[in-house]
Specification:
By secondary structure, the protein is mainly β. Helices cover about 0% and strands about 60% of the residues. Strands 2, 4, 5, 6, 9, 10 and 11 form a 7-stranded mixed sheet that branches.
């Protein structure tokens, strides 16, 4: 069994910053790519950023100057540093992990999401 648990969301004023965390736990053999997605009210879930096991990163173009994805392999944790937040960044943020279990089963796992609200 593998679990991903996000934290760090909350209410922030426009221009502020938040750092999201996503910790993976359970019967993990290895973690491959980890991603952040978000889903705004009434919209489809969209990909935000990804980070490979070796540390290479990719971002959606509109966010790469404000958001930074990183990971701590020793802690099985991925982070999303979000700066200069805008009201349109309001969404539930989800992490996804491409994880191989100790049984050598490789699957995408999702966290439960953390709410980010940007409002004055």
């Amino acid at each position: 069994q593998v679990q991903l648990v996000e934290s760090g969301g909350g209410l922030v004023q426009p221009g502020g910053s938040l750092r999201l965390s996503c910790a993976a736990s359970g019967s993990i053999f290895s973690i491959n790519t980890m991603d952040w997605y978000r889903q705004a009210p009434g919209k489809q879930r969209e990909w935000v950023a990804s980070i490979a096991s070796g540390g290479s990163t990719n971002y959606v173009n509109s966010m790469k100057d404000r958001f930074t994805i990183s990971r701590d392999n020793g802690r099985n944790t991925v982070y999303l540093q979000m700066n200069s937040l805008k009201p349109e960044d309001t969404a539930v943020y989800y992490c996804r992990g491409d994880i191989t279990t100790v049984a050598r089963s490789r699957t995408n796992y999702w966290g439960q999401g953390t709410q980010v609200t940007v409002s004055s």
